[in-house]
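To the wet lab folks,

You asked to see what we're planning to order before we commit. Fair enough. Below is the target structure as tokens, and below that is the sequence we designed to fit it. If anything looks off to you, flag it before the synthesis order goes out.
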């Protein structure tokens, strides 16, 4: 790109690329360690760690690819093709000093392997190691690229291309195999009794389940929502709070509304404009001005 592009135009292209990367990294709460010419080194898990850092990293990579594709359609200057690689493992964080310059970098094999995976990746794609894929499987759809002899690595590595997010929003959604559900009969009976009381009295009720992480709260409600042979399946609308969306107001409601509108578009051949589909749904429900705010 630098050989066939004017330096001033190249600076504009790289500046736009770096801005896209910076926005995606900030949204996923990662850390930009270095801008390396036309490359970017990003850490997830340092300086702030999250239990879902692997998923955040892959969400970030897909967001960069998506925004770059959009910028190509709207920008008058060309946008570069990018290759993104990711690897997971332990590193040693060290503050390196040379004269007055100081950098805090992750030392170890992981950054080097991630760089080599980037070299293997196809243009405009996100590739990961098998180690990273095992942490992301179920949350993302991927294509197995097979064992590769990665430069600088003694043994062959199996690499995966990340294609897209799956609909999974919880660990249970992402699991390929569920173990048989055992126990919690008393708790299930109490929840079902509350459901029956609501149905008979035609009055709402609220239920709060408290427990330590890993006690099985999500699995309990998953079991409750399955048909029990007596009253059939329970109709449920699931709204979930997601840590990565903590800065987005009403995200559970907005996310659920998006799912409903997407389903409307698929089943009725509705328009692609979300506002049009929202207006159509409001009209179908009999909600007209001045009952609703004009869209």
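Sequence we intend to order:
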């Amino acid at each position: 790109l630098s050989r066939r592009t004017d330096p001033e135009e190249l600076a504009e292209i790289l500046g736009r690329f770096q801005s896209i990367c910076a926005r995606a990294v900030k949204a996923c709460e990662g850390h930009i360690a270095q801008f390396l010419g036309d490359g970017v080194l990003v850490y997830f898990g340092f300086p702030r760690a999250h239990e879902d850092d692997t998923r955040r990293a892959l969400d970030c990579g897909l967001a960069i690819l998506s925004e770059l594709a959009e910028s190509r359609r709207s920008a008058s200057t060309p946008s570069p093709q990018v290759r993104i690689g990711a690897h997971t493992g332990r590193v040693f964080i060290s503050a390196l000093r040379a004269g007055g310059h100081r950098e805090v970098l992750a030392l170890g094999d992981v950054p080097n392997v991630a760089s080599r995976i980037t070299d293997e990746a196809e243009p405009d794609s996100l590739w990961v190691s098998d180690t990273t894929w095992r942490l992301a499987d179920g949350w993302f759809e991927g294509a197995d690229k097979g064992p590769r002899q990665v430069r600088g690595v003694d043994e062959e590595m199996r690499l995966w291309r990340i294609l897209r997010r799956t609909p999974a929003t919880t660990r249970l959604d992402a699991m390929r195999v569920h173990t048989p559900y055992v126990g919690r009969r008393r708790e299930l009976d109490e929840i079902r009794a509350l459901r029956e009381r609501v149905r008979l009295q035609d009055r709402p009720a609220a239920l709060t389940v408290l427990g330590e992480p890993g006690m099985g709260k999500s699995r309990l409600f998953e079991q409750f929502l399955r048909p029990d042979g007596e009253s059939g399946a329970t109709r449920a609308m699931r709204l979930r709070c997601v840590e990565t969306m903590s800065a987005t107001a009403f995200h559970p409601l907005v996310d659920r509304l998006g799912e409903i509108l997407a389903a409307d578009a698929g089943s009725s051949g509705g328009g692609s404009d979300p506002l049009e589909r929202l207006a159509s749904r409001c009209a179908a429900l009999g909600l007209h001005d001045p009952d609703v705010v004009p869209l």
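Structural context that might help your review: The chain has a mean pLDDT of 82. The chain is about 40% helix and 20% strand.

Thanks,
Computational group
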